[in-house]
Amino acid sequence: MERVPILKIGDILLVSIQVDMSDETAVALQEDLAERIVATGCHGVIIDITALDIVDSFVGRMLSTIASISRVLDAETVVVGMRPAVAITLVELGLSLNGIRTALNVERGMELIAIDRADDDHHEEWDDGPVAGATASP
Amino acid sequence: MERVPILKIGDILLVSIQVDMSDETAVALQEDLAERIVATGCHGVIIDITALDIVDSFVGRMLSTIASISRVLDAETVVVGMRPAVAITLVELGLSLNGIRTALNVERGMELIAIDRADDDHHEEWDDGPVAGATASP
Description:
Two copies of one chain form a homodimer. The longest helix of chain A is centred in the C-terminal third of the chain and has 23 residues, at 106-128. The first copy, chain A, is an alpha/beta fold. Chain A is built from five helices and five strands; from the N terminus they run E-E-H-E-H-E-H-E-H-H. In chain A, a hairpin with a 2-residue loop joins strand 1 and strand 2. Chain A has a five-stranded mixed sheet with strand order 1-2-3-4-5, sandwiched between helices. The first copy, chain A, has one domain: 2-Layer Sandwich (Transcription Regulator spoIIAA), CATH 3.30.750. Chain A binds chain B through residues 2-5, 7-10, 14, 16, 18-19, 48, 50-51, 81, 105-107, 110, and chain B through 2-5, 7-10, 14, 16, 18-19, 48, 50-51, 81, 105-107, 110. Chains A, B: InterPro entries: Bact_StressResp_Reg (IPR051932), STAS_dom (IPR002645), STAS_dom_sf (IPR036513). Chains A, B: Residues 2-113 form the STAS domain. Chains A, B: This is Anti-sigma factor antagonist.
């Protein structure tokens, strides 16, 4: 079975999907990624799909699952590099990629994650403060 | 034909080789990479071979060619993610990967390129100095 490599770059794990995903490969990727997030403490996962000609419901579900797993491990997932034709097909197939954030390329994905982390830090600061404690109550 | 995606991250182009390279794929990658180096002005190329179980003479030659092409386009190439077994096989096969620099992972590859650029800048400063100016005039 082929394993998709996971590259660590700073606070981000980068996955470039280039092979046709089988059930096995998808499960292995999810497990590997979860382990790497825990081991490295990274807060962002970028999945590059430049090489994919089509994103069908199977791949769409895999991306959603990865995003959900990452989220509970306190990491944000961004899918990057989607081709225009893939986007069109996705919409035609009625697939919405629920809960998945996208960006045009790796660099913008990194920016998105950095902005998110900055926002989170900001909220955390507020949460610790007396005022935000009150607004968070309702 | 499959094309290997090239990801731009800052001043670096990142290529993760996961598919078996055919003649066509290798030539396409060399062309794509040369075009991207010129288009982006990037000074570093990182080739990740984590996914490769074996580096034979064909892949070795391809890596050397990419490094040579990049060099004439003023970009440094670093091969990262080589598995221990691959390194052992390379030596057993008598392949030396001439002119190719290696690093353990993407982050160290990036550091290597950053250090090289810093060194180059330093030399360029010297070249611009009054002494070097005399040598540049003819």
